[in-house]
# Entry
Amino acid sequence: MGRLTRAQTQERNRAKVLAAARDEFADRGFRDAKIDDIADRAGLTRGAVYSNFPGKRALYFAVLAGLAEHAPQPPPPGQDRTAREALAVFARAWVARLPLSTDEHHGAARLGMDLMPEILAEHRTRVAYAQLMKLDAILLGLALERLRPPGRLVRLAEAVLTTLHGVSQLAAAAPGFTDPFDVVSVCEQLAGLDLGGGWPPTPAVPPARVTDEPWSPPPATDAVRGTPADLTDDGVLAVLGLHRLEAAEELVRAAPPAAAVTAVLVTGAPGELAPLARLVVAEVCGCLRQAFPPYAWPRLRVVHDPTGALAAAAGVPAVGDATEVAVRVRGGRIVARADGRGAGHAAATSGEHVTARDRHTR
# Structure
């Protein structure tokens, strides 16, 4: 076997650190885990751990993200389902991964017990998490709208996720408090709830700027479907910082019916917040793929861009958590771009005449 390149060595060491960290967190819990002990388990130095992860919390988020993204899943349903049936399956998939009251205090089943305290520990993680939850609700709401038209169901999705996250917290703090079958029944009943609220207002934004630029995006994976995303398709792509994820709803609702719609997630703190984003999106999308038939999956594609390489290809060389830039792609080139609040709407409607009624029925 030939000598490993520097990049291959770094990737191998990163994998070793993640595997060692998972064992350390499972055996001792997040709070009692030590970086030095993780390094010993991995057969590496403390410096090698910190060269891959900025701290223990970032490593913890990365471990949980990897588990969520690679969790075994049954094939998606091959038959039609009602919104009620889909929500019941979604809830069953969610509660199936929660720890049982008979599980040990530590161990693989309880790896996620310290997630919420670590999210609450800093303002920047709280803000990012709130917007990630908004994105989760948008994805679930868009899927529900395919099965229970017409109307906007993002608020209903927020109620479902509030219920399920509350159950997750009780499973950690008060094991055995609630019957999982009751939770499934509650979510099933929520499918018929009418929360009203109407559609989000169309933002008053300047039109997108017409341009003609090359478009050569790097390979990307759609986190919603777990498959490669062809970003050369005609459509609209928005680069969104983790504080602006709610803009994804206006992006997808403004886009023409045949257009590919992609949200590219970026952050100014990729070492810690990028794995948190991967985790939160993977948790919902894993359940969504089990519960909803493929034709009901949201048209919105979500791509993680921790290095900013995809953003740079779209002409956004510097990114942060407040970034909001969108481009319109046609014929393999960027033909329009917009930035700032409402950028997604501006780029999606560039060259299009979209009425409020048309937008709301998509």
